[in-house]
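Fold it.
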Amino acid sequence: MTTSPRPSMETHPDIIVMRMRHELAERATSTPQGQAVGTLAFITGIYLAASPWICGFNGMSTLAVTNLLVGLAYALLMSGGFGRAYERTHSMAWGACALAAWTIISPWVVAGNVSTTKTIVNNVIVGAVALCLALAASAAARAGESAKARGGMRARM
């Protein structure tokens, strides 16, 4: 009774696909554009979190707390705090778009009378920058997904 040799884990199809995904994500995040978007987004999130104290509207507690929480969440999402796979990056970028939109409208929505000139100017500008960066990350993730799909189509042919 002869037994056929078992294939090694190195050649298992799932392992090969996982390596290809990791290499694709690694290539995209190591480009100067990818690094610039990630860095600028992280700085934008940190600024948003600290903006009530920088701009002087920390006495308006509802907006100060909102900016602090949204800024930290945005910085974590856009800096890759939850992973670097393209499937996750695309979803995180759209989540960051929602946070940026919330930043823009929050001076008019949160409880209390917080819609002053400095809160509106601060949140609209920071929200617009955050939205542009999130859309850029989403576009990069989408381009990576389409490149991966084109590569998969070539491999099948």
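The longest helix spans residues 117-156.
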